[in-house]
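User: Is it possible to get a 3D structure for a protein together with its bound compound? The compound here is zinc ion. I've pasted both below.
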Amino acid sequence: MAEGRYANIIIDISHEKVDRPFQYKIPASLAGILEPGSSVMIPFGQGNRLRRGYVIEITDRAEFPPEKMKEISHMMEGDVSVEADAIKLASWMKHTYGSTMIAALKTVLPVKQEMKPVQKKKIVRLMTKEEVLCILSESIRKHQSAKARLLTELAGEPYLPYELVTKKLNVSAATLKSLETQGVLSIERENYYRNPVKVEASPEERKQLSGEQSEIVNRVLADYRNGIRKTYLIHGITGSGKTEVYLSLIEGVIAAGRQCIVLIPEIALTYQTLLRFYKRFGDRVSVMNSTLSKGEKYDQCERARRGEIDVIIGPRSALFVPFQNLGLIVMDEEHEGSYKSESMPRYHARETAQFLANLKGASLVLGSATPSLEAYSRAKSGEYQLFTLSRRLTGGTLPSVDTIDLREELKSGNRSIFSRRLQELMEERLQKKEQIMLFLNRRGYAGFVSCRSCGYVMKCPHCDVSLSQHLHGKMVCHYCGYETVQPAKCPVCSSPYILGFKAGTQQIEEQIHKRFPDARVLRMDADTTRKKNDYEEILSAFSEGKADILVGTQMIVKGHDFPNVTLMGVLAADLSLNDHDYRSGERTFQLLTQAAGRAGRGTKPGEVVIQTYRPDHYSIVRAATQDYEAFYEEEMLYRELAGYPPASHMLAILVSSENEQAGESLCVRIGNLLKAGTDPENREKMQIIGPAKASVGRINDIYRFVIYCKHKDYNKLVECKDKVESFLNQTEIRGQNVQFDFDPIDSF
Ligand code: ADP
Ligand code: ZN
Ligand code: ZN
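Assistant: Yes, that's possible. Here is the predicted structure of the complex:
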């Protein structure tokens, strides 16, 4: 229920029209009853013909003189259309994450194409065979040969593809038209929805579920049958059979006549994963991902709306596929950072899925080998139901892990990026013709170049970030693209050791070639995976044994099975600890656990070498022993002490501005507004940090400032956001932009 005298209404819920809501007066009889998503009849246009519209917002702000405003006629009750649900979802997102209603609607509504849907035309016979034969003989008599060709075919077939008739039979449009007028045939159009799935998968033999697996399936489906809808978290290492559980759950939900959304991080959306779904559900499953064209994406939404598919698989945006009877949402790898949107509304797919599941009466199943602190703490508190899968089903033992202190290596004179232990093991594996993976956990600008003698770091002149080293001595800014050449000596102290350790994947590849000239190496990182199929090609080449060593960034550690890999080297485990945000410990633990899980997937035992400057850090210690529970306890303690999510909630307000001073002063005004407006009771509980320069204080010559608010109660932070929004609505600001980010994943 929302308060206000006026309703903003959209009439036609296609993407382009969303920008043009119309304002109507709310009649007394509907005051307090209407809400976003309500469907109403309104007098429209000159003739005041009644048309159906959807309320998207309720407000007290009249956009034009109220006396000129028309009034809503009445409400259509009991509308449970997908449109109404989409608007409710958008309205919740706007409220929860901060954005305009238009931006929220554009996020949830399928992209309507200006382009017409692909249409297929067909010729439909309207007469009986005998009647057609009768007209045929007449046309033969009149020497109308084109007409005769068509009628001959049409006598045999009740439908003919239009193409066949116009091209193969060479019948003109005029001839067709005259036969249509005569009532012999009609030309019909039907929309043709592109199906991106081009797999011919034969069904596979059903696996007998393990005891642990069937326990989960039985309990979730029993809840389902009894009308209980909950959120479940499946904690199970990679290979413990989570996907198999999802498949059985989906089967059960489809049997109950409802549909399913399966969320998978884009990077894990591999051919192998899709194949398993196709084998089980055939063409009742479809996929959404960034390689689909806009038209193909829209078509998948249409197919879902029309009930042509039961399952959609895709990244976070697959949540918005408009199923009529959604019954289950599965979110695999729920801890992945890519589930958070990077533009407003900056929604998180986990919470959004939970809201959607509530709205639709669906269940939500989360799965991960390394659950987010958010999900695990909710599972511990009983808000989610926790299940554990403890065994790997394909056999293979957990690998043994060696942690190597890189400071010691340097002390003993080893300047190489490979520790002596790693070199030994690599040598041995190469001899035995077993495969090796080398993992560099650098993110974004972490591949910077610094001087090992004085600590000087090369920075971008337009952004407050360090430059990254590329091939041929180029230094590149990953934020704005600025390029320069790399100096041979440190500009400050003239030391030649300016490369330092923090080399990128390219340098590692070069080092491997130097140290092991005969080894065949594949590299996978942002540079080698630019094209659509690069990623799959590298992985299958490695899987087919076309290389001995695969070196890469985090792309290589996500969910692939290479039975012949028996050694995984993590080159600098603490690189991801240097990200300077509160999630870096969690991210490091996740990456190292995943990396360790790559070795020894087959019958041969695996070994993992973790090289680090911080062998005592709990993220590294716990990952080495694969002890999630212990990691969770330590990490949670830290979050509680420091008031970070999920122990507390956090709102980041980011101000960006072309003008440094204007940005700073706007940020200060917002800060003062928040500090002044907080009532005494909440002042103690609310922590306001800043205003301050963002940690990347300038990107492409745009200055960035940030304020952080922390409070245990999420709603208090929503109040802060609302306060800032209404301040911004009343204030003239130019050349500046304000964004909200709740429980941010990355620091600003
Ligand atoms: P996860 O999603 O947790 O990584 P998967 O469901 O992919 O686990 O299972 C890992 C491997 O074990 C797959 O090759 C799968 O086919 C196999 N598997 C899963 N469940 C069973 C089962 N009940 N019996 C035999 N093999 C199974
Ligand atoms: Zn120096
Ligand atoms: Zn730059």
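The mean pLDDT is 85. The chain has five domains: 6-108, 118-192, 211-389, 400-445+501-639, 649-742.
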